Amino acid sequence: MTDTAANITRVVDARGSFCPGPLMELIRAIRETQVGDVIAVYSSDKGSKTDIPKWVEKAGHRLVALDARDGYDEIVVEKLR
Amino acid sequence: MQRIAILGGGVGGTLTANLLAKKLRRAVDAGEVEIMVVDSTGSHVYQPGFMYIAMGGERAANLARPERSLLDKRVTLVVGDVERVDEARQQVHLANGLKLGYDHLVLATGSRIVPEAIEHFDQEAHHFYTAEAAAKLRAALDRFTGGRIVIGIAGMPYKCPPAPLEVAFLIESELRDRKLRDRSELHFCSPIGRAFTIESVSDMATPILEQKSIELHTFFNVEAIDPARKVVMSLEGEELPYDLLILVPPHKGQQFLMDSGLAPAPGGWLPTDRHTLEVGGRPNVFALGDATDLPLSKAGSTAHFEAPVVAERIVARIEGRAPAGKHADYEGKVMCFFEIGDGKGTLLQFDYDHPPRPPKPNQLWHLGKIVFNKTYWHTVPKGRV
Question: Are the beta carbons of B330 and B295 closer than 8 angstroms?
Answer without folding.
Answer: no
